[in-house]
Amino acid sequence: MALAGTGVFSEIIDGEVYRYYADGEWRSSASGKSVAIVNPTTRQTQYRVQACTQEEVNKVMEAAKVAQKAWARTPLWKRAELLHKAAAILKEHKAPIAECLVKEIAKPAKDAVTEVVRSGDLVSYTAEEGVRILGEGKLLVSDSFPGNERNKYCLSSKIPLGVVLAIPPFNYPVNLAVSKIGPALIAGNALVLKPPTQVYDSFGIFNSFTECEGLISCVTGKGSEIGDFLTMHPGVNCISFTGGDTGIAISKKAGMVPLQMELGGKDACIVLEDADLDLVAANIVKGAFSYSGQRCTAVKVVLIMESVADAVVQKVNAKLAKLKVGPPEDNSDITPVVTESSANFIEGLVMDAKEKGATFCQEYRREGNLIWPLLLDHVRPDMRIAWEEPFGPVLPVIRINSAEEGIHHCNASNFGLQGCIFTRDINKAILISDAMETGTVQINYAPARGPDHFPFQGLKDSGIGSQGITNSINMMTKVKSTVINLPSPSYTMG
């Protein structure tokens, strides 16, 4: 319970249960119930969080609506100023927040600190970008359209949507929370956040936004009690969700509100004969195994030309042998996956591949939630691992005989988040990129979300809408027009 005893965060715990955050205060639920948060490394309860009631959700929504009306009238420069202050506080408390990420989601300590610092930078950039985007209006005159006189002037600008419901994932809970909080606030919205079940302690980040009192709330509880109730709540004006299949269900129930969703991927890495094989191996290991493969933008399948496959597999195996496997406190490269059910799902994919004849480049090894890195060679399309997203340190290699074969496999997936191509021929790279049905294609680099101001979007079952700081600000606003009507020119001229 890292944050509980550390100064500015001391008020977030009530006995053994962490409070929820509403209207600028940490509160205890009237339900008297709580939800256990399990440490992935020990598989023991780390702490408990409040199980909020539907009535408490109603109160949170009403308070957010009231606070948003006043916030929308706050000058843009002042909103930006408050976000800059929040960013500074966030960075100042990077150590205790990072410690929470280590215990809650088994994130290696060095990566946890990096996430918090990156998040502070994101908030600062959002403040600056918001001033640029929202500080501009547009003027149209009527006589630019046929049949009209010059007697109407249309002034348009961006205004907030209202209350944004934000649902971040477990794997980058701080970064993907502030990537929703920052754009929502700079645009003049209020925000209600439903944290992932696995994560809560790190949401002491809300104390970084103390001067935005009432504008941010964080409600916790059982999905069966408040999940659908939140996403279908009439007080919600926009939903920003990052996660898995749940997003598809949310999109069907949400009604007529703007949706921003990133729902996972099966990111393909296509390797051609002329690629720099050392570069390929380094990016495969980094792309597929960092944070134990628990990233939507992780390399999830390697589609490699047969002529270079043996060499690349050998190079990747050599690098995998050097990875440190163990607890996150030791800054291990491979740490336990987030839940036992996740580990069981990964094991199911591995066993299916074994039964169907995949080549195991390492011995499969598991202790609790900890799974050792595993490369599966000679994977075929009839194996589950060829299509399903393991979200763990297991990578399939499918050998191909042409770029077209790789493109076909990539496009046959129901996912379309990111992909990457390795080749020295930029012309081939561009042609393949154009043919791949994915939101982003990296050339000679592993898939990656950032930098955070880049557009980030998925096709097919990988999502709706586009993320990235600029796109998020635009998505969380709407255009408001005011038309000034003047007397006709013939009347005024006599």
Automatic annotation (TrEMBL):
Its EC number is 1.2.1.9. Residues 26-481 form the Aldehyde dehydrogenase domain. Its main location: cytoplasm. It catalyses: D-glyceraldehyde 3-phosphate + NADP(+) + H2O = (2R)-3-phosphoglycerate + NADPH + 2 H(+). Keywords: Cytoplasm, NADP, Oxidoreductase. Belongs to the aldehyde dehydrogenase family. This is NADP-dependent glyceraldehyde-3-phosphate dehydrogenase. It comes from Eleusine coracana subsp. coracana. The lineage of its organism: Eukaryota, Viridiplantae, Streptophyta, Embryophyta, Tracheophyta. The gene is ga21094.
